[in-house]
Amino acid sequence: MESFCARPLSCRACPRCRFPFRCRWLLFAIFTLPAALAAQAGQPGEAVQFRLYDNYLIIVQTLVNGTGPFGFLLDTGTSRTIIDPALANRLRAPVVGNTSLTGILHVRQDELVQLQSIQLGTVSLSEMPAIVDRLSRQKTLAPGIRGVVGEDFLSRFDVLIDYKHRRLRFGGPIPSGERCPFETAGQYHGSPTSRRLLIPVQLVDMNEQTMKLQLDSGAKVLELFPGSFHARSSPPWAWSESTAANSVNGAAVHSNVTIRIGTIFVRGLDMIQSRRALAFDAGGLLPASIFQRIYISHSGGFVVLNPSD
């Protein structure tokens, strides 16, 4: 899915506070995030049902400012929560500034508004900033959605995504299984990036080359970006003329790929190597939907793939 990374904000000062809004949000995140993550450990898991569109896109009913529900994509590959302009107007959400966003294909400026609350089931967060965007690409993939729940919301919780039973669980006990670490921050052209779930993935069919892929619930297939290959680690199959018949949107395709994450092997995957120019800091996208269940511990910095309980 369109993976956003927030760059420095240009925000209006709050008349009731000597801090500009961006500083207030930073302070809020610094002091409340650890407490929120610690508090949830002792709470029972909150189950939220979702609809799976096209066998990979998670659409969850979401209350915004106490109104709705509205259909939102839940996307671990999007760093910031987004609402469409019509919903922003309906809510009369106050504009608090602009933010520069780095997406997969481009860098652009978008408007930033303040939301009173966002709620999924019984789980909610207050005073959430959100980006206003037309979501043209996302609405083509999942017609009717009104926004995207991104990692700025999800990172406050430990989350179990259960594709088999179409449900989310916030908090609750840690399931058994191998804990595979991830990183949340990186750099792109010297600028810091954040709210990333970057997982070391070994490509068994590429001389066991390891690269960091972003865990993305909005991605349909395993995708590698330009520049992610090293000349010394070229794959044992050709990407150019021999795969032209299987190319999709300028991307070469290979089938029956095997990857390894920790000691876990996933076989029989389709993989594409994108040929488009990118503005992005990961080696590629790892679709979350290739697993039946996946537990994301934002508090612990690890994932459990296909946990047994």
Structure description:
This protein is mainly beta. It folds into 2 domains: 166 residues, Acid Proteases (Cathepsin D, subunit A, domain 1, Beta Barrel); 127 residues, Cathepsin D, subunit A, domain 1 (Beta Barrel). Helix content is 12%, strand content 44%. The chain has 4 helices and 23 strands. A 6-stranded mixed beta barrel has the order 4-5-10-6-9-8. The N terminus is likely disordered.
Which SSEs are present, and which pair or pack?
Layout: E1 5-11, H1 21-40, E2 46-49, E3 51-53, E4 57-64, E5 67-74, E6 82-83, H2 85-91, E7 95-102, E8 107-120, E9 123-132, H3 136-141, E10 147-149, H4 151-154, E11 158-162, E12 167-170, E13 179-181, E14 186-188, E15 191-193, E16 198-203, E17 209-216, E18 222-224, E19 252-261, E20 264-273, E21 284-287, E22 293-297, E23 302-305
Parallel strand pairs: 5-10, 6-9, 17-21, 18-20
Antiparallel strand pairs: 1-7, 2-12, 3-4, 4-5, 4-8, 6-10, 7-8, 8-9, 11-12, 11-22, 13-23, 14-15, 16-17, 16-19, 18-21, 19-20, 22-23
Which features would summarize this protein structure in a list?
44% strand, 4 helices, single chain, 6-stranded antiparallel sheet, 6-stranded mixed barrel, mainly beta, Cathepsin D, subunit A, domain 1, 309 residues, 12% helix, 2 domains, disordered N terminus
TL;DR of this structure?
With 309 residues, the chain is mainly β. The chain is 12% helix and 44% strand. It has a six-stranded mixed β-barrel with strand order 4-5-10-6-9-8.
